[in-house]
Write a structure and sequence with these properties.
By secondary structure, the chain is α+β, with helices and mostly antiparallel strands. It is about 35% helix and about 30% strand. The protein contains 15 helices and 29 strands. β16, α8 and β17 form a beta-alpha-beta unit. α1 packs across α8 and α13 packs antiparallel against α14.
């Protein structure tokens, strides 16, 4: 039945990589089933027969997580996969970004690339299998494309570069680097890193490319054997005659309008120019407003690129390596736990930090082993930030990607859960945008965290580097604004501390970058990053605040023996509910024995922890407690220092002064300080209020 099916095998990072073609999804233009260890991904590519009337290439790339691939039933009410998870969207973007620039200019046919994850072996990541499989599916199809590409995930374990690390290796790796490339050029870099220096990062990229070249050879061997002939497509490229007509009318006026550092002035100046072009060409080119718009875009792009390449001139008059005016501010919002605003030119990002109990971490329902997120970063890009009126429809793929990039940038400098037992949520609100909002959110997020009192290991800043190419000529410029992003060839984002890189995201519009371009981008972003950290952010807030906001919950944690968990919870939850009610706190007990206590009053938090420690440990002589008076006797009083742990305070130990009647000093229900004197001859606790009062007096 499957007489046309063919199997191809190679070795990737020491494990078998197998591709089956001709057996699955044969109605697609191209398809293959990829097996990497026990990870299995079905990759398909389809193309519509006719182009769409749009000014962009309508490519969609989807990474579909199926929970059956890890033997799980979805946790949603309807028990089926619905909208893609953030992780799936990020995986889609990682494949989309290197593939998109390699499709021909002027192509407007819909192309859909779908990766369906059908089985997952955690040692062999489905994202890498999906990327390579997608490249194979398009390469062997009749869809025009200038690929193939290959991709690897690279780690750094004990200082050694590891290609496609296993799960155990990823757990200890200080680098999470994904590289995609053609045989000659790098087309995509995505990285999270624990303060990796430029040279080490460059070495990891080069070694990744070496591994990718072997993948490219494998793919080309498949294409040579079974690849289809590429079809001719109806190009929707700008009509040369129409473009020259637009250029003749508008060149000088567009050049004048573009020459400003203010996006608002530029946009306003272009409006009458568009109207003039429409008016003068409406008779010769009727019903071609859409194509005229494309010509105007191409003309603006031509002007900006000529300025940069020929005159070393930027639209806003800056030097090639000059950063726009910067400003940083903290404590803007009085009632939130922390806030920071970072401004770069006309780009402005306000980030807000919120602290909560560890139990409020985000629950995940995906195909990897991560089921909770303690640090959550959301990024919002409202239409008003660019002066537009689109309605809000929730975060799109771009917003999710930028939030994840800022999140990845800051993870390496966050304190551990043991040192700072909080769930942390950051929300970056882009309130004005003219380029580099993702890196603005990195800077604003550092400010917000420090304002909230989160003890960061080091502050993080981010900056982007652009590129213009023409044949063998190329030049880079630091801190690109909107028009340089739109009309340029690269947006190379790098975030990090003074010590090293914490994240990279590289977007390009050309068929790849040389090592020289990447090295220069690293050097320029490093210099710019140090300037932002020292001259701007440090002047707004030099170090994290010593105290949390009065509106933030006060949190402490202890680790208890798991055998003692039942004692803390009590029968039917009676003990823990009693602690919560008495101390006005929240208490979370984890399966591993971690106990987290939070409340607005630090004294109540300490009292609750004191009670819990008393439950799980035998009180030591000399230890101080606050206990509740439960009974009065003529000879003294009983005080409960923890549920089930009660001791006697003799009348002689009730107060510093002589006490004639117990009732004169304390009453049932009072919370009183006591000090453990030891055990009596019957094994009961002996407590002293007198010694506790003396100790407290001495402290003052």
């Amino acid at each position: 039945m499957f007489e046309n099916a063919k199997t191809f095998k190679t070795t990737l990072a020491g494990r078998e990589f197998k591709v089956v073609v001709g057996k699955f999804a044969n109605l697609a233009n191209g398809s293959c089933m990829v097996y990497y260890g026990d990870t299995v991904v079905l990759c398909t590519a389809t193309m519509s027969p006719k182009p769409r009337d749009v000014d962009y290439f309508p490519l969609s790339v989807d990474f579909e997580e199926k929970l059956y691939s890890v033997g799980r039933i979805p946790g949603s009410y309807i028990r089926r996969e619905t909208r893609p998870s953030d992780k799936a969207i990020l995986s889609s973007r990682v494949v989309d970004r290197p593939m998109r620039p390699l499709f021909p200019d002027g192509m407007r046919n819909d192309v859909a690339v779908v990766m369906t994850v059908m089985s997952v072996d955690q040692d062999n990541e489905p994202e890498i299998a999906g990327m390579i499989g997608s490249s194979i599916a398009v390469a062997i199809s009749d869809i025009p494309w200038h690929g193939p590409i290959g991709g690897v995930h690279t780690g750094l374990v004990d200082g050694e570069v590891v290609i496609n690390p296993t799960l155990a290796q990823r757990d200890v790796s200080t680098l999470q680097l994904t590289v995609a490339a053609t045989e000659d050029k790098i087309v995509m870099i995505e990285a999270g890193a624990y303060e990796i220096d430029n040279d080490t990062m460059m070495d990891a990229i080069v070694k990744s490319h070496d591994a990718i070249r072997e993948i490219i050879k494998f793919i080309n061997s498949i294409v040579d054997e079974i690849g289809k002939e590429k079809i001719e497509f109806e190009s929707q490229a700008v009509d040369a005659e129409l473009y020259e007509a637009v250029k003749a009318i508008a060149y000088d006026s567009v050049k004048l309008a573009m020459d400003t550092d203010d996006k608002t002035i530029r946009d306003a100046a272009l409006v009458p120019i568009y109207d003039e072009v429409y008016s003068k060409l409406s008779e010769s080119y009727p019903d071609m407003k859409f194509q005229i718009d494309e010509c105007m875009y191409k003309l603006q792009k031509y002007i900006v690129r000529r300025w940069l390449l020929d005159d070393n001139k930027r639209v806003d008059g800056r030097g090639i390596d000059q950063i726009r005016p910067l400003d940083a501010e903290v404590g803007i919002l009085p009632r939130v736990h922390g806030s920071g605003m970072f401004t770069r030119g006309q780009t402005q990002v306000l980030t807000v930090a919120t602290l909560a109990m560890a139990s409020e971490s985000q629950l995940l329902d995906g195909i990897d082993l991560e089921d909770r997120k303690r640090y959550i970063h959301h990024y919002n890009f409202p239409s008003y930030s660019v002066g537009e009126t689109r309605p809000s429809r929730g975060p799109g793929r771009r917003e999710i990607g930028h939030g994840a990039l800022a999140e990845r940038s800051l993870i390496p400098v966050l304190p551990s859960l043991e040192d700072f037992p909080y769930t942390i949520r950051l929300v970056s609100e882009v309130i004005s945008s003219n380029g580099s909002t993702s890196q603005g959110s990195v800077c604003g997020s550092t400010l917000a965290l420090m304002d909230a009192g989160v003890p960061l290991k080091a502050p993080v800043a981010g900056i982007s580097c652009g590129l213009i190419t023409e044949g063998d000529r190329w030049m880079t410029m630091v801190d690109i604004q909107g028009v340089e992003d739109f009309f340029g060839d690269m947006d190379f984002k790098v975030a990090g501390t003074k010590k090293g890189i914490t994240s990279i995201q590289m977007d390009i519009k050309i068929e790849g970058l040389s090592y020289d371009v990447i090295r220069e981008a690293f050097e320029k972003t490093y210099v710019a990053r140090l300037y932002i950290l020292d001259e701007v952010m440090a002047k707004a807030i030099a170090q994290p605040r010593k105290e949390l906001s009065v509106y933030a919950p006060k949190m402490k944690s202890i680790l208890i023996d798991v055998d003692k968990i039942s004692a803390v919870i009590g029968k039917g939850g009676k003990t823990i509910q009693g602690i919560i009610a008495e101390c006005e706190v929240k208490v979370d007990v984890e399966e591993d024995g971690h106990v987290f206590v939070s409340g607005l009053d630090l004294a109540n938090v300490n009292r609750a922890l004191n009670i819990i420690e008393t439950i799980v440990n035998d009180p030591e002589e000399g230890t101080m407690y606050y206990g509740k008076v439960t009974r009065l006797l003529p000879i003294g009083a009983f005080v409960e220092i923890a549920p089930g742990k009660e001791g006697m305070v003799h009348i002689s130990k009730l107060d510093i002064q002589r006490v004639e009647n117990v009732e004169d000093v304390i009453s049932v229900g009072d919370i009183v300080p006591v000090k453990v004197l030891g055990l009596d001859d019957r094994g009961r606790l002996n407590l002293s209020r007198k010694d506790a009062l003396i100790a407290l007096k001495d402290r003052k």
